[in-house]
Amino acid sequence: MSHYRFVTAEDCRKCLTYPSKTIETSIGSIEYADRGEGPVLLSAHGSPGGYDQGLAMAEVFRKNGYRIISPSRPGYLGSDVSLGQSVEAQGDALAALIEALDIPQAIAMGTSGGGPPTYQLAERHPDKVKALIEIDSVTLKYDISKDMSKVTEFIYLSNVGVWFSSFLMKHFPKSVIKQFLETESSLDQHEIGERVEEIMNDEDRFAFMNTLFTTMYRNWGKRKHGFENDMKTMNVHEKLPLSNIACPSLIMHGEKDADLPDTHSKYACSAIENSELYYIMGGSHVGFWLADSARESQTYALNWLSHNR
Which of 27, 92, 169, 248 could share a disulfide with 308, CB 3.0–4.6 Å? Predict the structure, then answer.
């Protein structure tokens, strides 16, 4: 049995209400949350997201002895989009935040669209990163809009659509979770049906799913510019520059991730000398938190960190 503490529904709710701060850095003001005690883990949220999502993604680490620094990336909530109109600039923004907080070195964790900034933080400021964890993170040219239907674009990227999605999640969560898994995973219909029932009957996993949706769409008007910026910046590099990354790196990827092919993580592992690729068995794009193997994957990451921090 694992000796680690895992995330509960109450933990998820606290992440949604935890207050943020703003700090003046060498490049401008950055919004962030600072929670917990211990070695510093910088958590870069996905697309769309914000500091609240970064807290939730890293909550299992906070519960096991880490101090979480979770910024709102440029264009999200209280961080101006002008601070990060390239993935390199977003990496530099994370470095500026670490400097402003007087943190010599941090563990960096990137999730999905938070991957390019954390990879570039480690690439461009290797002295500031002691270890790197990437979870289903982008490293190759990624055109989010290419595979997005007009209906999906309306549901997720318009004010009316976002309101409608929030309404559905509140009143018809089972249907929303099913649609999400159909989009984000390559699980077959039987597996999706089983996964939906498991999430619906597990208070902790259901709370995380609700938290994920909330941190994607609550106050959408303050998140959409960050998402639009991500759509541009992640569609530039054929391959992210990664050859300067020297720190130990754990690259994790959902075995059933249909949103982001594992070619992204395979490339990272081939480009970074001191790296390891770990597959989250049965995991969708958010399998680290919702797959049947989620606790096994989280335990692996915590064990890995205990040897590489």
Answer: 248
User: How far is Cα of residue 296 from the mean position of the Cα atoms in its chain?
Assistant: 18
Sheet holding 249-254, edge to edge: 21-25, 28-35, 67-71, 40-44, 106-111, 129-135, 249-254, 275-280
> pLDDT tens, 189-232?
999 999 999 999 999 999 999 999 899 888 888 998 999 999 99
Domain extents in the chain: 9-145+221-308
Alpha helices in 18-84 (DSSP H): 51-57, 59-62
Closest by CA to 212, choosing from 83, 111, 308, is 111
pTM: 0.93
CATH of domain 9-145+221-308: 3.40.50.1820
The per-type count for the chain, helices as H runs and strands as E runs, is 14, 8
DSSP letter for 125, please.
-
Q: Over the range 65-98, which residues count as b (16 or more CB within 10 Å of their CB) and which as e?
A: bbbbbbbbbbbbbbbbeebbebbbbbbbbbbbbb
Question: Comparing C-alpha atoms, which of 132, 92, 134 is closest to residue 111?
Answer: 134
